[in-house]
Amino acid sequence: MKKEKIILTGDRPTGKLHIGHYVGSLKRRVELQNSGEFDKIFIMIADAQALTDNVDNPEKVRQNIIEVALDYLACGIDPTKSTIFIQSQIAELCELSFYYMNLVSVSRLQRNPTVKTEIQMRNFESSIPVGFFTYPISQAADITAFKATTVPVGEDQKPMLEQTNEIVRRFNHIYGETLIEPEILLPDNAACLRLPGTDGKAKMSKSLGNCIYLSESADELQKKIKSMYTDPDHLRVQDPGKIEGNTVFTYLDAFCRPEHFERYLDEYPCLEELKAHYQRGGLGDMKVKKFLGAIMEEELGPIREKRKEFEKDIPAIYEMLKKGCEVAREAAADTLADVRRSMKINYFEDAELIAEQAKRFQE
Ligand code: ATP
Ligand code: MG
């Protein structure tokens, strides 16, 4: 039988989705969805994972589920092609996590670089919630439950995929071939691996408040771009400017295409020439920001409009999510049955075991 190609990916409902999500994963998902190359696509709103570091703010997580779902639909995720579901509704994931916990050591979890950074960012050093510390294990459950072969995510997720593959290998080694090792699918464009925040910080993240949201109004979008971090030493237009670490140019690397120059800045033939002028001196930040503003509006304007349409029927979106959860639950239950069988904890289905035990006690 041909191996099925399955995608699992998702986002935490800790806020609306931002352009980091878009270039890091969301845009790719829509392309993969429409390529028709995948047998199944599962997109998870990771509310249970969001609770691991938002225990004091469950309402934030609850409120943002619909925001994330709206962002998905607005970007072109099509529920007739992709199953969108909510993590907490799939109890099977907890059971899988519980078994996987025995396959991972505390010191292995402590070495996860993304979790390390996140612990620092959240000031958790002295009191790390156990659930947060172990979320890479629960993520392995999410991925393997759907027998995912492909996981399109941003670079910060690399350690989670490595952890998942270690769990899969260990499980299969102990219990026999059962789980599937997934492959990470990172963005091709280097600027999209980890899009920086508007403040120049290493990662745009809902938790850092340095985001441009997909649903930003046209005015707010331009305002945020105008106040973006550039090169702090580029004070006068005639000064030479730096491109490295200059967020405006990183966003241009992520979003700019050759045709944008024809439309909005035809005095330059390409991005390389624009960068060279900035580095030489004589090109002001405002001109570059205006160009970026036009490009971003072209990309985000249609998403904003589509979102407004979907906002008109919120109950229909909950209904769609409910159906998605049903489909997801069935898929996860299948895997859990395989796992129980491999672990030989399916006692009541195991006629051989019962006969063996009966014989043992009669001897
Ligand atoms: P939080 O701050 O709550 O962790 P987040 O902004 O990091 O939120 P997640 O829900 O953790 O967002 O990430 C969802 C997906 O988006 C993941 O695949 C992640 O790799 C990707 N992603 C998030 N931020 C970025 C970014 N700045 N650049 C590229 N990809 C990103
Ligand atoms: Mg994150």
What does this protein structure show overall?
There is one protein chain. The chain is mainly α and 363 residues long. The chain folds into 2 domains: 6-194 and 314-355, HUPs (Rossmann fold), CATH 3.40.50.620; 218-309, Orthogonal Bundle (Tyrosyl-Transfer RNA Synthetase), CATH 1.10.240. It has 16 helices and 5 strands. It has helices at 19-35, 47-51, 58-75, 92-100, 106-110, 113-121, 130-133, 135-145, 158-175, 218-226, 247-255, 258-264, 271-280, 285-311, 314-343, 351-362, and strands spanning 6-11, 40-45, 83-86, 150-152, 183-185. The strands form 2 sheets. Strands 1-2-3 form a 3-stranded parallel β-sheet. Helix 4 crosses helix 8, helix 10 (218-226) packs antiparallel against helix 14 (285-311) and helix 11 crosses helix 14 (285-311). The longest helix is centred in the last third of the chain and has 30 residues, at 314-343. It is elongated. It starts with 5 loop residues before the first strand and ends with a helix. The model has no long low-confidence stretch (mean pLDDT 96). Adenosine-5'-triphosphate is lined by residues 11-12, 14, 20-21, 24-25, 153-154, 156-157, 194-195, 203-207.
Keywords:
elongated; 16 helices; Tyrosyl-Transfer RNA Synthetase; binds adenosine-5'-triphosphate; Rossmann fold; 363 residues
Radius of gyration: 24 Å
**Based on CA inertia axes, which overall geometry fits?**
elongated
Number of strands: 5
Number of helices: 16
Uncertain stretches = none
H and E string:
EHEHHEHHHHHEHEHHHHHHH
Q: Which percent range describes the beta-strand content?
A: 5-15%
The helical percent reads: 55-70%
Bound small molecules, by name, code or SMILES, are: adenosine-5'-triphosphate, magnesium ion
Number of domains: 2
SSE-based structural type: mainly alpha
Name the CATH class of the largest domain.
Alpha Beta
Largest sheet: 3 strands, parallel
- In whole angstroms, how far apart are the ends? 44 Å
**CATH homologous superfamily label of the largest domain:** HUPs
CATH overall fold name of the largest domain:
Rossmann fold
Q: Please tell me the CATH architecture of the largest domain by its name.
A: 3-Layer(aba) Sandwich
Task: Write out the strand line-up for the largest beta sheet, numbering strands in chain order.
Answer: 1-2-3
Mean pLDDT, as a whole number?
96
